[in-house]
Amino acid sequence: MPRSEPSLAVVIVSYNVRADLERCLDSLADADLPAVTTVAVVDNQSTDGTLEWLRTERPQVLALDAGANVGFARANNLGIRATTSDLVLLLNPDTVVPRDAVRDLVAALHADNGAAAVGPRLVDGDGRPELSFGPMISPWGEFRQRRLVRAYEAGVPAAVARVHAMTQVAGPRDWVSGACLLARRGDLEAVGLLDERYFLYTEDVDLCAAFRSRGRRVLFTPAVTVQHRRGRSGATAPGATERHRRASQLAFYRKHHPAWAPLLAAWLRWRGHDLS
Prior knowledge:
Distance between the termini: 57 Å
Shape: globular
CATH architecture of the largest domain: Alpha-Beta Complex
Helix content: 40-55%
Strand content: 15-25%
Radius of gyration: 18 Å
Number of helices: 10
Number of strands: 11
């Protein structure tokens, strides 16, 4: 007897990115989605009329008011808890999803019973691949990843070739980007959803670490490509975004590398970062 098609919830967190959100929702409307799919948008108190627009123009979307800017992890958790489905797709509003991408992600996840989550190949608006996965965050891991990304963004030929090669190889990864991450609801609930101590950034790495701590795999599949217009929300408040990024980095080290956390805090203060 054939297995029934899994149900899906797409959870999108929005903060003052109405134009990007509209583009993302348009792509989902044209996508080949499971028959039972709920698209939920959790709005972090946007000031651009996002909620009113959703309720007027997109009544088929489950529009949820977070009540404040509660951060990425907590807002995603609100969306996950407000839905019931076999699978959950965490999706940034600054993404564009090709027609077959979601169904292909679902197929990739269900092909591996030991996998909790899968992420696609992400590319920017010009089709350049993003290094949307990496090693577990650690002093050495961060150094290597940052060095590679900076060289890639600077157009260093060796780095460009390496990133292009890396993003063509499928298989398990320590983490994949939360910009587009498909997970089984059972695995999400088993790890307590996203850790809300992270306001913005690093929550996806922590979530994948939680999956792997239970012996579950996290997969990357280059067979699926999704466009990601990075940093659109953060561009509206770059100073606050950088503070949140550093605060999340420190929270991650306190949780996973407590011996390194005081050294990181001292280094960040020496560099002039506000950790209050």
